[in-house]
Amino acid sequence: MKILFCGEGFPEARKQLAALLPDDEILAFPPDQIGSHIADADIVVPTVNRVDEALMKKGHFAFIQQFGVGLEGVDIEAATRNGIRVARIPSEESGNAASVAEHAILFMLMLSRNWNRLARAREENKPLPWGSPEGVALRGKTVCIVGLGGIGRELARRLAGFQVRIVTADDHADRTVPGIEIARRYTLAELPAAVAGADYVVLSLNYTPDRYHLIGKAEIAAMKRGVYLINVARGGLLDEHALLTALKSGQVAGAGLDVFWEEPVDPNHPIFKENVIATPHTGGVTDVSYEGISRAFAENVKRYAAGEKPRYLANDPTTTRRRVP
Protein backbone atom coordinates (compact mmCIF):
# COMPACT_ATOMS: atom_id res chain seq x y z
CA MET A 1 0.00 0.00 0.00
CA LYS A 2 0.97 3.62 -0.46
CA ILE A 3 0.97 5.74 2.69
CA LEU A 4 0.99 9.44 1.90
CA PHE A 5 2.28 12.03 4.40
CA CYS A 6 0.76 15.47 3.75
CA GLY A 7 4.03 17.33 4.09
CA GLU A 8 7.72 16.57 4.21
CA GLY A 9 8.08 16.81 7.98
CA PHE A 10 8.48 13.88 10.39
CA PRO A 11 11.49 12.36 8.55
CA GLU A 12 12.42 10.13 11.50
CA ALA A 13 8.81 8.91 11.73
CA ARG A 14 8.82 7.95 8.07
CA LYS A 15 12.15 6.18 8.53
CA GLN A 16 10.81 4.13 11.44
CA LEU A 17 7.60 3.29 9.60
CA ALA A 18 9.53 2.13 6.56
CA ALA A 19 11.35 -0.37 8.77
CA LEU A 20 8.09 -1.56 10.38
CA LEU A 21 6.17 -1.72 7.10
CA PRO A 22 8.75 -2.96 4.58
CA ASP A 23 6.11 -4.06 2.06
CA ASP A 24 4.44 -0.64 1.94
CA GLU A 25 5.57 2.57 0.28
CA ILE A 26 5.91 5.73 2.38
CA LEU A 27 5.42 8.91 0.34
CA ALA A 28 5.81 12.55 1.34
CA PHE A 29 5.29 15.72 -0.67
CA PRO A 30 5.04 19.44 0.11
CA PRO A 31 1.50 20.51 1.02
CA ASP A 32 0.98 22.32 -2.29
CA GLN A 33 1.67 19.08 -4.19
CA ILE A 34 -0.59 16.74 -2.22
CA GLY A 35 -3.54 17.25 -4.53
CA SER A 36 -1.48 16.01 -7.47
CA HIS A 37 -0.53 12.78 -5.69
CA ILE A 38 -3.58 12.02 -3.57
CA ALA A 39 -5.09 9.67 -6.17
CA ASP A 40 -2.20 7.24 -5.58
CA ALA A 41 -2.70 7.06 -1.82
CA ASP A 42 -4.24 4.15 0.08
CA ILE A 43 -3.72 5.79 3.47
CA VAL A 44 -3.37 9.50 4.18
CA VAL A 45 -1.41 10.95 7.10
CA PRO A 46 -2.50 14.58 7.66
CA THR A 47 0.30 15.61 10.07
CA VAL A 48 -0.44 19.33 10.62
CA ASN A 49 -2.06 19.96 7.25
CA ARG A 50 -5.67 20.32 6.17
CA VAL A 51 -7.54 17.32 4.77
CA ASP A 52 -10.93 18.60 3.61
CA GLU A 53 -13.73 17.18 1.50
CA ALA A 54 -12.29 18.55 -1.74
CA LEU A 55 -9.08 16.63 -1.15
CA MET A 56 -11.00 13.51 -0.17
CA LYS A 57 -12.94 13.55 -3.42
CA LYS A 58 -9.71 13.73 -5.42
CA GLY A 59 -8.56 10.41 -4.00
CA HIS A 60 -9.78 6.87 -3.47
CA PHE A 61 -8.28 6.33 -0.02
CA ALA A 62 -10.55 4.94 2.68
CA PHE A 63 -8.38 5.53 5.74
CA ILE A 64 -6.85 8.61 7.36
CA GLN A 65 -4.34 7.72 10.08
CA GLN A 66 -2.74 10.52 12.06
CA PHE A 67 0.82 10.14 13.28
CA GLY A 68 -0.15 11.28 16.76
CA VAL A 69 -3.24 12.70 18.42
CA GLY A 70 -4.34 15.94 16.74
CA LEU A 71 -7.08 15.78 14.11
CA GLU A 72 -8.07 19.45 14.01
CA GLY A 73 -6.99 19.66 10.36
CA VAL A 74 -9.25 16.80 9.28
CA ASP A 75 -12.87 17.39 8.33
CA ILE A 76 -14.17 14.34 10.19
CA GLU A 77 -17.81 14.93 9.21
CA ALA A 78 -16.81 15.01 5.55
CA ALA A 79 -14.74 11.86 6.02
CA THR A 80 -17.74 10.09 7.53
CA ARG A 81 -19.97 11.19 4.62
CA ASN A 82 -17.41 9.85 2.18
CA GLY A 83 -16.95 6.52 3.95
CA ILE A 84 -13.43 7.28 5.16
CA ARG A 85 -12.33 6.07 8.57
CA VAL A 86 -10.20 8.43 10.65
CA ALA A 87 -7.91 7.31 13.47
CA ARG A 88 -5.44 8.86 15.88
CA ILE A 89 -2.84 7.39 18.25
CA PRO A 90 -3.70 7.99 21.94
CA SER A 91 -0.96 9.98 23.63
CA GLU A 92 -0.84 8.04 26.87
CA GLU A 93 -0.38 4.66 25.20
CA SER A 94 2.34 5.80 22.82
CA GLY A 95 4.59 7.67 25.22
CA ASN A 96 3.71 10.98 23.57
CA ALA A 97 1.87 12.22 26.66
CA ALA A 98 4.86 11.56 28.90
CA SER A 99 7.14 13.45 26.52
CA VAL A 100 4.82 16.47 26.31
CA ALA A 101 4.39 16.49 30.10
CA GLU A 102 8.17 16.66 30.50
CA HIS A 103 8.22 19.55 28.04
CA ALA A 104 5.63 21.43 30.10
CA ILE A 105 7.81 21.05 33.19
CA LEU A 106 10.79 22.27 31.18
CA PHE A 107 8.84 25.46 30.42
CA MET A 108 7.85 25.83 34.07
CA LEU A 109 11.43 25.54 35.27
CA MET A 110 12.91 27.81 32.61
CA LEU A 111 10.36 30.54 33.29
CA SER A 112 10.73 30.17 37.05
CA ARG A 113 14.50 30.53 36.88
CA ASN A 114 14.53 33.55 34.53
CA TRP A 115 16.03 31.70 31.60
CA ASN A 116 15.50 34.53 29.11
CA ARG A 117 17.19 37.08 31.33
CA LEU A 118 20.14 34.76 31.92
CA ALA A 119 20.44 34.00 28.20
CA ARG A 120 20.44 37.71 27.30
CA ALA A 121 23.14 38.38 29.87
CA ARG A 122 25.34 35.69 28.32
CA GLU A 123 24.70 36.91 24.77
CA GLU A 124 25.50 40.51 25.72
CA ASN A 125 28.47 39.48 27.86
CA LYS A 126 27.03 41.39 30.80
CA PRO A 127 27.44 39.29 33.94
CA LEU A 128 24.63 39.69 36.44
CA PRO A 129 25.40 40.58 40.09
CA TRP A 130 26.22 37.58 42.27
CA GLY A 131 22.98 36.04 43.55
CA SER A 132 20.88 37.57 40.78
CA PRO A 133 18.31 37.07 39.36
CA GLU A 134 16.26 35.52 42.10
CA GLY A 135 14.40 32.45 40.90
CA VAL A 136 11.06 30.96 41.82
CA ALA A 137 10.92 27.41 43.20
CA LEU A 138 8.04 25.12 42.28
CA ARG A 139 7.72 23.75 45.80
CA GLY A 140 4.61 25.03 47.52
CA LYS A 141 3.16 26.63 44.39
CA THR A 142 -0.26 25.94 42.84
CA VAL A 143 -0.49 24.49 39.35
CA CYS A 144 -3.76 24.45 37.45
CA ILE A 145 -3.82 21.70 34.82
CA VAL A 146 -6.45 22.51 32.20
CA GLY A 147 -7.35 19.19 30.65
CA LEU A 148 -6.86 15.93 32.53
CA GLY A 149 -6.50 13.65 29.53
CA GLY A 150 -3.35 11.71 28.75
CA ILE A 151 -0.96 14.67 28.91
CA GLY A 152 -2.65 16.16 31.96
CA ARG A 153 -2.47 12.91 33.90
CA GLU A 154 1.19 12.39 33.02
CA LEU A 155 1.91 15.97 34.06
CA ALA A 156 0.16 15.51 37.40
CA ARG A 157 2.21 12.38 38.11
CA ARG A 158 5.46 14.22 37.45
CA LEU A 159 4.52 17.37 39.32
CA ALA A 160 3.75 15.42 42.48
CA GLY A 161 7.47 15.03 43.08
CA PHE A 162 7.89 18.81 43.10
CA GLN A 163 5.55 19.14 46.10
CA VAL A 164 3.15 21.48 44.34
CA ARG A 165 -0.57 21.90 44.95
CA ILE A 166 -2.52 20.62 41.93
CA VAL A 167 -5.93 21.82 40.83
CA THR A 168 -7.60 20.74 37.59
CA ALA A 169 -10.19 21.98 35.13
CA ASP A 170 -11.65 19.33 32.87
CA ASP A 171 -14.80 18.50 30.97
CA HIS A 172 -15.02 15.38 33.15
CA ALA A 173 -15.01 16.83 36.66
CA ASP A 174 -14.79 13.38 38.26
CA ARG A 175 -11.50 12.45 36.57
CA THR A 176 -8.72 11.55 38.94
CA VAL A 177 -5.12 10.39 38.72
CA PRO A 178 -4.57 7.26 40.82
CA GLY A 179 -2.10 7.88 43.61
CA ILE A 180 -1.94 11.64 43.03
CA GLU A 181 -3.60 14.16 45.32
CA ILE A 182 -5.65 16.78 43.50
CA ALA A 183 -6.54 19.64 45.82
CA ARG A 184 -9.64 20.62 43.89
CA ARG A 185 -11.33 19.66 40.64
CA TYR A 186 -13.30 22.09 38.48
CA THR A 187 -15.27 21.76 35.28
CA LEU A 188 -14.28 23.76 32.21
CA ALA A 189 -17.36 25.90 32.83
CA GLU A 190 -15.70 26.89 36.12
CA LEU A 191 -12.44 27.83 34.44
CA PRO A 192 -12.15 31.37 35.92
CA ALA A 193 -12.42 29.92 39.43
CA ALA A 194 -9.96 27.13 38.61
CA VAL A 195 -7.20 29.47 37.41
CA ALA A 196 -7.79 32.19 40.01
CA GLY A 197 -5.29 30.99 42.60
CA ALA A 198 -2.75 29.32 40.34
CA ASP A 199 0.89 30.28 40.03
CA TYR A 200 1.11 28.24 36.83
CA VAL A 201 -1.64 27.44 34.33
CA VAL A 202 -0.88 24.62 31.89
CA LEU A 203 -3.08 23.91 28.87
CA SER A 204 -3.06 20.19 28.07
CA LEU A 205 -6.52 19.48 26.63
CA ASN A 206 -7.72 18.41 23.21
CA TYR A 207 -8.74 21.16 20.83
CA THR A 208 -12.27 21.30 19.42
CA PRO A 209 -13.87 24.22 17.56
CA ASP A 210 -16.00 25.14 20.58
CA ARG A 211 -12.79 25.60 22.59
CA TYR A 212 -11.39 28.25 20.29
CA HIS A 213 -9.77 30.90 22.52
CA LEU A 214 -10.83 29.04 25.65
CA ILE A 215 -8.25 31.20 27.37
CA GLY A 216 -8.93 34.80 26.44
CA LYS A 217 -9.04 38.23 28.00
CA ALA A 218 -11.57 37.35 30.70
CA GLU A 219 -9.86 34.13 31.75
CA ILE A 220 -6.43 35.78 31.91
CA ALA A 221 -7.91 38.62 33.97
CA ALA A 222 -9.22 36.00 36.43
CA MET A 223 -5.67 34.73 37.03
CA LYS A 224 -3.45 36.11 39.77
CA ARG A 225 -1.00 38.78 38.67
CA GLY A 226 2.38 37.32 37.76
CA VAL A 227 1.06 33.93 36.66
CA TYR A 228 3.04 31.75 34.27
CA LEU A 229 0.96 30.46 31.35
CA ILE A 230 1.99 27.37 29.39
CA ASN A 231 0.43 25.86 26.28
CA VAL A 232 1.51 22.40 25.14
CA ALA A 233 -1.87 21.50 23.66
CA ARG A 234 -3.05 23.47 20.59
CA GLY A 235 -2.59 27.08 19.57
CA GLY A 236 -6.28 27.73 19.01
CA LEU A 237 -7.00 27.35 22.72
CA LEU A 238 -5.20 30.59 23.58
CA ASP A 239 -6.00 34.11 22.36
CA GLU A 240 -2.58 35.41 21.37
CA HIS A 241 -3.71 39.05 21.40
CA ALA A 242 -4.98 38.74 24.97
CA LEU A 243 -1.75 36.99 25.95
CA LEU A 244 0.41 39.70 24.39
CA THR A 245 -1.48 42.42 26.25
CA ALA A 246 -1.17 40.50 29.52
CA LEU A 247 2.57 39.95 29.04
CA LYS A 248 3.11 43.65 28.42
CA SER A 249 1.14 44.62 31.53
CA GLY A 250 2.75 42.03 33.79
CA GLN A 251 -0.52 40.22 34.44
CA VAL A 252 1.23 37.19 32.91
CA ALA A 253 4.88 37.06 34.03
CA GLY A 254 5.92 34.69 31.28
CA ALA A 255 4.63 32.13 28.81
CA GLY A 256 5.87 28.82 27.51
CA LEU A 257 4.51 28.05 24.05
CA ASP A 258 5.03 24.87 22.06
CA VAL A 259 1.98 25.50 19.84
CA PHE A 260 0.78 28.61 18.05
CA TRP A 261 -2.13 30.36 16.34
CA GLU A 262 -0.45 29.57 13.05
CA GLU A 263 2.26 27.07 12.28
CA PRO A 264 4.95 27.73 11.36
CA VAL A 265 4.67 30.89 13.42
CA ASP A 266 6.17 34.21 12.32
CA PRO A 267 9.42 34.54 14.32
CA ASN A 268 9.05 38.34 14.16
CA HIS A 269 5.69 38.34 15.94
CA PRO A 270 5.76 40.96 18.72
CA ILE A 271 4.91 38.37 21.35
CA PHE A 272 8.49 37.08 21.15
CA LYS A 273 9.77 40.41 22.44
CA GLU A 274 8.15 39.57 25.78
CA ASN A 275 9.12 36.95 28.34
CA VAL A 276 8.20 33.98 26.15
CA ILE A 277 10.00 30.69 25.76
CA ALA A 278 8.98 29.07 22.49
CA THR A 279 9.61 25.73 20.81
CA PRO A 280 8.32 24.71 17.35
CA HIS A 281 5.70 22.11 18.34
CA THR A 282 8.35 19.66 19.49
CA GLY A 283 6.99 18.72 22.91
CA GLY A 284 6.19 15.20 21.77
CA VAL A 285 9.15 14.77 19.45
CA THR A 286 11.28 12.31 21.41
CA ASP A 287 12.72 8.85 20.93
CA VAL A 288 10.11 7.36 23.25
CA SER A 289 7.09 8.92 21.57
CA TYR A 290 8.28 8.25 18.03
CA GLU A 291 8.90 4.61 18.83
CA GLY A 292 5.51 4.21 20.50
CA ILE A 293 3.54 6.09 17.84
CA SER A 294 5.29 4.27 14.99
CA ARG A 295 4.54 0.89 16.52
CA ALA A 296 0.84 1.69 17.05
CA PHE A 297 0.61 3.26 13.59
CA ALA A 298 2.10 0.17 11.91
CA GLU A 299 -0.24 -2.14 13.81
CA ASN A 300 -3.24 -0.12 12.64
CA VAL A 301 -2.04 -0.19 9.03
CA LYS A 302 -1.76 -3.98 9.24
CA ARG A 303 -5.28 -4.23 10.66
CA TYR A 304 -6.60 -2.08 7.85
CA ALA A 305 -4.75 -4.09 5.20
CA ALA A 306 -6.24 -7.30 6.64
CA GLY A 307 -9.77 -5.90 6.38
CA GLU A 308 -10.13 -5.43 10.14
CA LYS A 309 -11.47 -2.31 11.80
CA PRO A 310 -8.58 -0.03 12.83
CA ARG A 311 -8.17 0.93 16.47
CA TYR A 312 -8.49 4.43 17.96
CA LEU A 313 -11.15 5.58 15.49
CA ALA A 314 -12.48 9.13 15.68
CA ASN A 315 -15.45 8.17 13.50
CA ASP A 316 -17.22 5.03 12.31
CA PRO A 317 -18.94 5.45 8.93
CA THR A 318 -21.98 3.25 8.33
CA THR A 319 -20.53 2.31 4.97
CA THR A 320 -16.91 2.68 3.93
CA ARG A 321 -15.17 3.19 0.65
CA ARG A 322 -13.94 0.05 -0.96
CA ARG A 323 -10.19 -0.12 -0.50
CA VAL A 324 -8.36 -0.16 -3.79
CA PRO A 325 -5.93 -3.14 -3.75
TrEMBL record:
Residues 30-314 form the D-isomer specific 2-hydroxyacid dehydrogenase catalytic domain. Keywords: Oxidoreductase. InterPro entries: D-isomer_2_OHA_DH_cat_dom, D-isomer_DH_CS, D-isomer_DH_NAD-bd, NAD(P)-bd_dom_sf. One of its GO terms (molecular function) is NAD binding. The keyword Oxidoreductase applies. CDD domains: 2-Hacid_dh_11. The keyword Oxidoreductase applies. SUPFAM superfamilies: Formate/glycerate dehydrogenase catalytic domain-like, NAD(P)-binding Rossmann-fold domains. Residues 107-283 form the D-isomer specific 2-hydroxyacid dehydrogenase NAD-binding domain. Belongs to the D-isomer specific 2-hydroxyacid dehydrogenase family. PANTHER family: D-ISOMER SPECIFIC 2-HYDROXYACID DEHYDROGENASE FAMILY PROTEIN, FORMATE DEHYDROGENASE 1. This is D-isomer specific 2-hydroxyacid dehydrogenase, NAD-binding. It comes from Methanoregula boonei (strain DSM 21154 / JCM 14090 / 6A8).
